[in-house]
Amino acid sequence: MKRLLEIEFIKLWNNRASKVLIITYFALLTCITLLAFVKFDIGPIHFDLAEQGIFNFPYIWHSNTFFTAFLKFFLLLVIVSMVANEYSNKTIKQNLIDGLSKKEFIASKFLTVLILAFISTIFIFIITIILGYSFSSITETYHVFSGLEYLFAFFVKLIGFFSMGLFFGMLIKRSAFAVGGIILYFFVEFFSFIFVVNYLDSRAKADAIYQFLPFKALWNLIDEPVTRLGAVKAVANQVGEKFNFDYAVHWYEIVIVLVWTAIFVYGSYLLLKRRDL
Question: I need a surface site. Which of 47, 129, 195, 238 has the fewest CB within 10 A?
Fold first, then answer.
């Protein structure tokens, strides 16, 4: 395992584009700390983001993991280009000639996926702890650590998404086309979901069907946190709206994403196994 990881990280570090994308990704993650200093006035209204409670424990686990998950696209580019470069640089053939089996080759890619997802999760954990203890009005130990299921869901979400990138990279072999393929599939799933909602005249029935598809399954892991904010609820109550959403991380949603992860990884292996290099 150590040998496989060393091979992959040497390749990543020697690739200028991957290095820039990784540094940019973690720099942007760090920038979420700047949200604590967002303050502005609109006429007589003073707006202070920290005072809205977004950094309160345990809510901060939900909000941080939800919003930072949008940045995962940067590492997706790294994963896809990592695979595509193996074909364009002929290193995949050389690795196999040098004694690396096809199973080990896919294992090395998936281990890289796991490591990048794990480092990202630890990074978010540290940032959240710092922001929470700096600005949260609730710092009791029970509340501080009662939202860690969102962090686990974040980790699973990254693994699932990066595994999809691994599969499309193996399938298409060109990074730009592979990313384009992922985006195209996203729009197919998204617009077909809207069509099914209108056709069935039921969002609940459409959700029940689409929860098993990749992008919907990834989205379901961490629900939007905005409607949990007290200020948002207060405004909703004033206009006669009430939010009664389920924000919990459910075990079956985790299982669905893990099943897709297994499908993507095994699918990548089958593509490599059957392909004439």
Answer: 238
